[in-house]
Amino acid sequence: MAHANVWNSHPKASGKGSRQCRVCAHRAGLIRKYNLNICRQCFREYAADIGFNKFR
């Protein structure tokens, strides 16, 4: 097994490496509240479609 094949060869069950954005598969900046599992960039794009209102 070459060194390059070692990365992500074992599936993760918990932790940051196991979660990704359901829209773009990005792993950083996830919003997990209310089981959204959307990164912050996609949330800003789809917030109105989901039903979130901006008050201010």
UniProtKB/TrEMBL annotation:
Gene3D superfamilies: 30s Ribosomal Protein S14, Chain N (4.10.830.10). Residues 1-20 are annotated as: Disordered. GO terms for biological process: cytoplasmic translation. GO terms for molecular function: structural constituent of ribosome; zinc ion binding. Keywords: Ribonucleoprotein, Ribosomal protein, Zinc. Pfam families: Ribosomal_S14 (PF00253). The keyword ATP-binding does not apply. GO terms for cellular component: cytosolic small ribosomal subunit. Its cofactor is Zn(2+). The keyword Nucleus does not apply. It comes from the Eukaryota. Belongs to the universal ribosomal protein uS14 family. This is 40S ribosomal protein S29. It comes from Rhizopus stolonifer. The gene is RPS29.
